[in-house]
Each structure stands twice: as structure tokens, then as C-alpha cells.
UniProtKB/TrEMBL annotation:
One of its GO terms (cellular component) is exocyst. It comes from Equus asinus (Donkey). InterPro entries: Sec10-like (IPR009976), Sec10_HB (IPR048627), Sec10_N (IPR048625). Residues 39-90 form the Exocyst complex component Sec10 N-terminal domain. Residues 93-642 form the Exocyst complex component Sec10-like alpha-helical bundle domain. It comes from the Eukaryota. Residues 50-88 form a coiled coil. One of its GO terms (biological process) is exocytosis. This is Exocyst complex component 5. Signal peptide: none annotated. Keywords: Coiled coil, Exocytosis, Transport. The gene is EXOC5.
Length: 643
């Protein structure tokens, strides 16, 4: 076929075509050629060539038919397009004419031209409907250029706003298919923002109207469905939903701020948000505080129920205030001591739950309160925290702990108040952290800040006063316990043994038990407190401990060997005092140890010892009181040396 095609030349001449074919065929040349003339071979070549030409003819014919069909199709499409363009122009022309007629008709008197005016108005209306329908169809087909043309024509018609409404309605068809309506709305607005400028001459107005439609219809309906049901029966879920929906709505608004929506888009979007939530935000703080009170009360009641404890009534008013003043001034336990069985009635779990609920309330308050109401609303939440955490829980535990402290003369008393102190300190830190982290930022620029600081100060001072009272009474109990140990374990013969040469012990049994008890209490105090409080309480305990031992030693008469044993006891007490790590306490026991030397020193050396570094500054009566404890004091020689 390729060879056949090569034989065709322009212009085509049949004789020349056959001549070229013969010339190319072997045996088809003239008698004088290189090959002998072969008529059979030439005939065979002609027959084959005719068949090839027939096949070529059929193929060309099919191709011609296909091209003719394609040409006819394109001709029809072109004709249709021409018709549409002609029709489009006739619409534009008709719209221009009817628009002008409509304007002219407005100036004509109705009584004389009522029929004409009516016909023009009817035609105006019909054409307007046709244009809107054309716009609708073009939008469904996705023909942006046609939409732009029709919108430009409709711009001068009253129905232009209806055209915009149609566009907004159709934009939202199939737009809300995900589970997140806010994400759907953001994607819709982003898509329209890219498209609206290619269609309308006022894209910012159209986009703003779309956003308004989304907020006032779609989002408002969704918010109502999410809130109305739980609003009546489930305050917790209602507040969570309100916070979540408001947050997501404001986040959507922030995304929309990047679009051109006109001059004051911030005010525009704020008004849309307010229109959705105004009925819920008006009484938000009432719902919040009501829920927080009931929730806090439930947390506390559930805790006391778990302890099988019925809360005692802590009275208020004249009698209770009088008792409190007397107790603070005299440190006397007013009323019978109660047995708390080691229970502090303070729970870190309860505290964490109360603080968590309050933290969430502060977060919702920050988000949902009007800026002008924020400090006042935050203060209301803070007062609820104070009521349930500080008063109903901590203060109640302190009062119960105080009532549980036994009298100072009780034997084998269990001192649990230090456990109350330890837990109360931990809770104070948590309370103070929430105050600084979550309340202060909400009221920092408001007069409510000083009010809250003052309220916190009063609460802490009241509780510290009760803690101080409890610690003081606990120290008294410790002293009472040590007195019991000394009274039970210390024998007169310890310091005046019958056989001076047969004393085998290094220190007395009373000393061993007292030191063991003191070390245990020191460790407990260190674990119960922190910072300077530890040193303050240990100093007070150390001073009282020293006074107790000092007065205890004054009760006995000492032989020489008994004095040595007393010195050994005081040395052990001094070793115990070192655990306090309080210089004053150690100094007191160093001095006491030096005083005990007066019990054993030779009479001739008494004046020298008394003038030594540790005793020189002491009152002479104190020195004399210790010398008088010597069994040999009444001897003329000793009295003469010390006089």
C-alpha cells in the first residue's frame, strides 16, 4: 500500500500513473531493457495493484464519511452557540429596553397610562423571572461566565437581591455533609470567597450575606438543637455544650476575618455571634453558679458519706464567737474532746475535684461573660470556691481537728493534728496556685482584684490562727506525754544510788524513752510543715523541751555518781536537741549540760566552774539552785566555797 501511495503525484494523470507502475514492475520494461519483457508477470502485477486500490478506496471513503459526520456535528453545535449568543444578546437588549421603559413609566400619570404602565410592569416582571431562572440554570451547570453576564444585567433590576439569594441558597446545597458543621461552614465560605468576585460586582456584600445566612439559619438552628434539651434537665452538659459551641463559633468567626466583608467586619461578625447566643448568655452566670454550688456540695457530701461521717454543726454567732476569743487568748479546750480515730477529714481528691470544677467555671466565665461583667462574675465563682473548699472543707477539718486534740494531761494521746497541718499546707498551695493562675488574669485590671486579695488574706489569717492554736495545744500535749514518761520512768534512786560503786547504766531509762519520743515528734513536725514554719515550731518545741528537763532535774538530789548519770542524761538530751537544727535550742542544752557539772565538781573548783564561759552570764540564783541539788550541799565546806 505504501508503494501504491508513492505512485500518486499531483496533478494526477492516469497514463503517467500506469507508466510509472509498469516501469517499477520487474519484466515490464521495453525490449531493449535490462530484463526481458514478461506480459504474464505484468498482468499479475496489474491485478494485485487493482485490488490494493480498491481497499484504499474503501478506507478513504470511510474516513470521508467520518469527517463529514464530524463536520455536520460541529456545524450544529456552532449554529446552536450562535443561536444562544443571539438569544443572549436579545435578552440583554430586551432588558435594556424594558429597564428604560420601566423608568419612564414611573413618571407617567397613572390615570391616563394605567394600561401601558401595567403592560410594562408585567413585561418587567416576566423578564426579571427569566433572568433569575437563567442565572439559576447557569449556576447549576457551573457556567461562571454566564452567571456573571446575567448578574450584570440583573444588577439594575429590583430582583437583583433575589438573584443573590438564589446564589446563596444553591451554594449551600450539599455543603453540610461532614459531622462538623463549623468546618463545613468554613470550607463553604472559603470556596465562595474564591468564586464570588468572578460573578458579582459587589462580592464583599454577597459574601457577607452568605455568612449572615449561615449564622442566622444553619448555625442558630444547630445551636438551639444542642442546647435546648439539656438546658432544662442537665446543667453540666448544658454548660459544656454552651462553652464548646461558643468557642467553635468564635473560632469560625476568626477564620472569616481574613475575608473582605466590608468596612467593619469585626462588629458585623460579633453581632452575628450575639444574635445566636444572646438568650443563653444573659443568664449564663446564674446557671454557672447554681451548678457549681450543687456540684461542690455533692462532692463534699459524697466524701463524708464514704467516711460514714455526719458533719458536726460548727456554730456561729455570739456564743461561738465568745468561745473562739477565749480559746485564742487562753488556749483552753472549750467543750469535750472528740475522738477522730486518726481521720483528718481532709481529702486531696476532694480538693482536686473542687479546684477542677472551679477551673472549668473560670474558663467558661472568661469565654462567655461580657467583658464588663467578667470581674464580677469571676468574683462570684471565687466566693463559691471559698465557701466549699475553705470553709466547708478545710475550716471544718481544722475545727474537728482542734476538738480532737486531747488535754495536756492525757496519757498515750494520739496527736493527729499535725497530719491536719500537713494536708492543710498542701491544700493552701493548691488554692493559692489556682488563685494566681486562673482568677487573677480575669480581674487584674478591676477593683475586684483588691477585694479578692483581701478576702484571701482574711481566710488565710483565720486558718493560720486555728493552725497556730492547734499546734500550740499539740505541743502542750507533747509536753504532757513527756511528763508522764518522766514521772513513770524516773526513780529518785537514779541520781542517788544506794551503791555508788555499782552503777552499770550510761543513762537512765526515762531519758531513753523521752529522747525516743522527742525524735519521733521532731520527724513528724518536719514532715508536716515546710519553710520557716518548721523552724518556728521546732524552736518552740525545743524551748519547752528544755524547760521541762530543766524543771525535772530540779526535783532530785544528786550524789556524786548520780550527778555523773544526770550529766550523761543531759548529754543524750543535747544529742536529741541537735536533730532540731535550731542553734538556740542547742545552746540551751549546752548551758544545761554545763550547769549539771556543778553537781559533780569538787567544792574547791565551784567558783572557777561558775565563772567559766558558759556559766559566767547566768544569774547567780540559777547557779545556786543547781549547787543546792548536791547531796553534800549542807556540808560546811561546800556552803563556804559557794558563798
Amino acid at each position: 500500500m505504501a508503494t501504491t501511495a508513492e505512485l500518486f503525484e499531483e496533478p494526477f494523470v492516469a497514463d503517467e500513473y500506469i507508466e510509472r507502475l509498469v516501469w517499477r514492475t520487474p519484466g515490464g520494461g521495453s525490449r531493449g531493457g535490462p530484463e526481458a519483457f514478461d506480459p504474464k508477470r505484468l498482468l499479475e502485477e496489474f491485478v494485485n495493484h487493482i485490488q490494493e486500490l480498491q481497499i484504499m478506496d474503501e478506507r478513504i471513503q470511510r474516513k470521508v464519511e467520518k469527517l463529514e459526520q464530524q463536520c455536520q456535528k460541529e456545524a450544529k453545535e456552532f449554529a446552536k452557540k450562535v443561536q444562544e449568543l443571539q438569544k443572549s444578546n436579545q435578552i440583554k437588549e430586551a432588558a435594556d429596553i424594558i429597564q428604560k421603559l420601566h423608568l419612564i413609566a414611573q413618571e407617567l400619570p397613572f390615570d391616563r397610562f394605567s394600561e401601558v404602565k401595567s403592560k410594562i410592569a408585567s413585561k418587567y416582571h416576566d423578564l426579571e423571572c427569566q433572568l433569575i431562572q437563567e442565572f439559576t440554570s447557569a449556576q447549576r451547570r457551573g457556567e461562571i461566565s454566564r452567571m456573571r453576564e446575567v448578574a450584570a444585567v440583573l444588577l439594575h433590576f429590583k430582583g437583583y437581591s433575589h438573584c443573590v439569594d438564589v446564589y446563596i441558597k444553591q451554594c449551600q446545597e450539599g455543603a453540610y455533609l461532614r459531622s462538623d458543621i463549623f468546618e463545613d461552614a468554613a470550607i463553604l465560605c472559603q470556596r465562595v470567597n474564591k468564586q464570588v468576585g468572578d460573578i458579582f460586582s459587589n462580592p464583599e456584600t454577597v459574601l457577607a450575606k452568605l455568612i449572615q445566612n449561615v449564622f442566622e439559619i444553619k448555625l442558630q438552628s444547630f445551636v438551639k438543637d444542642q442546647l435546648e434539651e439539656c438546658r432544662k434537665f442537665d446543667a453540666e452538659q448544658y454548660l459544656k455544650n454552651l462553652y464548646d459551641l461558643y468557642t467553635r463559633t468564635t473560632n469560625l468567626s476568626s477564620k472569616l476575618m481574613e475575608f473582605n466583608l466590608g468596612t467593619d467586619k469585626q462588629t458585623f461578625l460579633s453581632k452575628l455571634i450575639k444574635s445566636i447566643f444572646i438568650s443563653y448568655l444573659e443568664n449564663y452566670i446564674e446557671v454557672e453558679t447554681g451548678y457549681l454550688k450543687s456540684r461542690s456540695a455533692m462532692i463534699l457530701q459524697r466524701y463524708y458519706d464514704s467516711k460514714n461521717h455526719q458533719k458536726r454543726s460548727i456554730g456561729t454567732g455570739g456564743i461561738q464567737d465568745l468561745k473562739e476569743r477565749i480559746r485564742q487568748r487562753t488556749n483552753l479546750p472549750l467543750g469535750p474532746s472528740i475522738d477522730t480515730h486518726g481521720e483528718t477529714f481532709l481529702s486531696q481528691e476532694v480538693v482536686v475535684n473542687l479546684l477542677q470544677e472551679t477551673k472549668q467555671a473560670f474558663e467558661r466565665c472568661h469565654r462567655l461573660s461580657d467583658p464588663s461583667d467578667l470581674p464580677r462574675n469571676a468574683f462570684r465563682i471565687f466566693t463559691i470556691l471559698v465557701e466549699f473548699l475553705c470553709i466547708e472543707h478545710i475550716d471544718y477539718a481544722l475545727e474537728t481537728g482542734l476538738a480532737g486534740i486531747p488535754s495536756s494531761d492525757s496519757r498515750n494521746a494520739n496527736l493527729y493534728f499535725l497530719d491536719v497541718v500537713q494536708q492543710a499546707n498542701t491544700i493552701f498551695h493548691l488554692f493559692d496556685k489556682q488563685f494566681n493562675d486562673h482568677l487573677v488574669p480575669l480581674i487584674s485590671s478591676s477593683p475586684k482584684l483588691s477585694e479578692c486579695l483581701q478576702k484571701k488574706k482574711e481566710i488565710i489569717e483565720q486558718m493560720e490562727m486555728k493552725l497556730d492554736t492547734g499546734i500550740d495545744r499539740t505541743l502542750n500535749c507533747m509536753m504532757g506525754q513527756m511528763k508522764h514518761i518522766l514521772a513513770a520512768e524516773q526513780k529518785k534512786t537514779d541520781f542517788k544510788p544506794e551503791d555508788e560503786n555499782n552503777v552499770l547504766i550510761q543513762y537512765t531509762n526515762a531519758c531513753v524513752k523521752v529522747c525516743a519520743y522527742v525524735r519521733k515528734q521532731v520527724e513528724k513536725i518536719k514532715n508536716s510543715m515546710d519553710g520557716k514554719n518548721v523552724d518556728t515550731v521546732l524552736m518552740e518545741l525545743g524551748v519547752r523541751f528544755h524547760r521541762l528537763i530543766y524543771e525535772h532535774l530540779q526535783q532530785y538530789s544528786y550524789s556524786c555518781m548520780g550527778g555523773m548519770l544526770a550529766i550523761c542524761d543531759v548529754a543524750e538530751y543535747r544529742k536529741c536537741a541537735k536533730d532540731f537544727k535550731i542553734p538556740l535550742v542547742l545552746q540551751l542544752f549546752d548551758t544545761l549540760h554545763a550547769l549539771c557539772n556543778l553537781l559533780v565538781v569538787a567544792p574547791d573548783n565551784l567558783k572557777q566552774v561558775c565563772s567559766g564561759e558558759q556559766l559566767a552570764n547566768l544569774d547567780k540564783n540559777i547557779l545556786h539552785s543547781f549547787v543546792q541539788l548536791r547531796a553534800d550541799y549542807r556540808s560546811a565546806r561546800l556552803a563556804r566555797h559557794f558563798s
